[in-house]
Amino acid sequence: MACSSGSSANMSSINVSTPSMAVTADTVDQKTCPLVFEIYGKIWNVQARLGQGVSASVYRVNSGQASSAVKEFQLDAQCGDYGYLKESSVLEKIQGHKNIVTLFGMFTNHNPFGVATHCLLLELLDVSVSELLARVSNQGHSMWLIQHCARDVLEALNFLHREGYVHADLKPRNILWSADDECFKLIDFGLSFKEGHQDVKYIQTDGYRAPEAELQNSLAQAGLESGSGCTTAVDLWSLGIILLEMFSGIKLKGTVKSQGWKDNSSAVVDHIFSSNAVVYPAIPVFHLRDLIKSMLHNDPKLRSTAEAALINPFFSIPFAPHIEDLVLLPTPVLRLLNVIDDSHLYNEDEYEDIIEDMKEECQKYGTVVSLLIPKENPGKGQVFVEYANAGDSKEAQRLLTGRTFDGLTGMRLHVQHKSHNPSHPKPLWICLLNVITF
Description:
Keywords: ATP-binding, Nucleotide-binding, RNA-binding. This protein has 13 helices and 18 strands. By secondary structure, the protein is α+β, with helices and mostly antiparallel strands. The chain folds into three domains: 3-18 and 330-437, 2-Layer Sandwich (Alpha-Beta Plaits); 36-122, 2-Layer Sandwich (Phosphorylase Kinase, domain 1), CATH 3.30.200.20; 129-322, Transferase(Phosphotransferase) domain 1 (Transferase(Phosphotransferase), domain 1, Orthogonal Bundle). It has a six-stranded antiparallel β-sheet with strand order 4-5-6-7-9-8, with helices on one face. A five-stranded mixed β-sheet has the order 3-18-14-16-15, covered by helices on one side. A three-stranded antiparallel β-sheet has the order 1-17-2, with no helix packed on it.
């Protein structure tokens, strides 16, 4: 199959819809971004800055063989290395859970100006829940996506809380999708602490802050000490707000600060559900509403634990993903639309030739595990290309952007899908990465 950047009357341009990063990635600026990191004797090139905060910056880096994330901590004149030491210490002790970001290692970076900074080498993740919320503004997510996110985060919190830790900054930006593991993961443990040994007075982000944390912050600002530290219950409050935002499709910062919420938050939750429930099945809505309410008691002692929340009836209901869900969440599979017309599907010789051509072209961008062109609905006229990993799939999507194809007259294929999670086999077309329209 011929591939070029030009146009032709016999060729069709490729348009790619790309899920954005969790944080808008800056192009590499030599004045503000390091160009490379030397990590364990190997040079990693900086491809983009994924985020920048007061105490640290996060970069996407590539070694030529793999991509990762580097979190570089700025030196703090008052606190020294406290932020780096705190987060690395917590991460080291909670490694091994599938819903918590993986820490690959720690290193010191020496920049050309002679300044040494401490860094964490982390698993590179994909789209955040914050980004997902922005993409479906005022509509709300499907029950499948809400359930998937809720279960993954609760699994992470259940593990974290059993280990005695409070995350203390749960918010949409700190929940990211892993394309390789096909699950959501928690990141950013800079405010985390051992329950009963709270060493940070100001915890959680405005809009996701539990009432007891709000009170503690207010007392700290007034120079007063609170009677006791916050508990793991603050994380459940934050998750309750996040799930309510995913259901409603709206940010609730103003709502949770309103007098109506303070007077009767349960009534506000009921109103949100009654306003949105018309597009959802009644029983799942009922269970989701009660699950969220169980996390939003003003009294932390009455709030559900992560362990108890996981056995809520909401998680016993099977949901199928919507096509929009699968396009939003990057996976190792590319979905190509309008690649061929129906006439090619019924000519066996052309069909086999087209499959061979498609596979040959797609293999230029990574290892192709399988390729499927359905002959019947659903999916007729589409091509699904499964790569060995999400990295190859995303790289193929990037390189295919703007390309044109010729010679799409024929195909061949025998597909046997290999699930990335053997305990949850699924048909190839169920896991999608990006939509490419010819």
